[in-house]
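Hey,
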Amino acid sequence: MSLRTFCFKRLAIAGLAIALGVAAPGAGQAAKLLVLDASTEAHKPGAIIDASRPLHLETGERLTVVDAGGSVLALFGPHDGPPVKATSHSGDGSEDLLLQLQRLIDLRRRPADDSAAPVDRSPLLNDPWLISTAGSSHHCLAPERPAAFWRADVATELPVELTSAKARPLQLSWARGEARLYWPAGLVLSDGTEYRLRLGKSQRSVRIVLHLIPADLPSEAHRIAWMAEHGCTSQARMLLDRIAS
């Protein structure tokens, strides 16, 4: 079940419960928080903690958590008491979000399997929205960002062929000295479509499956979970590191 479908079903059940005057599933249960990052050994990233239980942080210690509604909270020591006091939304939303982010944290200890690493990865780390041409991948596109390819070697001008099953092959030119090549206006971006990119005289084409991120996701945490669910693991991990820091 997708994250969006789960949320819609959750809301429908909650609405029916209110109309009938009974408790919705999860009502009365303690709200949970997922640890994203911590400067103390007492709390490990990926751990799920009870938002109502007292939390102790010494001076200088830091803990970053996310609640089931997607809100990110940074706590700094000295701190004694429940972390829930610092946010009014810790009980909102579905714990399914926390579980998806927890799985993504576990993956941070292993290499991502959705794309090959380029020679110099630093520009992609600074901008996870760039589409790497180093290897086949699933790539998620944000509605507010223009789609653009990236290459490490900018020494030469390259002819580029971009094709998909839904469109005729498009011939492009990647200018010398340019690391980015923006998506051509003549080719419509289509969600879930596989595109093939051939660079220069190479006989091998790079397979890229694009996923268009919905604009109505309620938080950055929900966006990250959606991306991981659609195979954009490397991007999701980069963005998770950002909200955790």
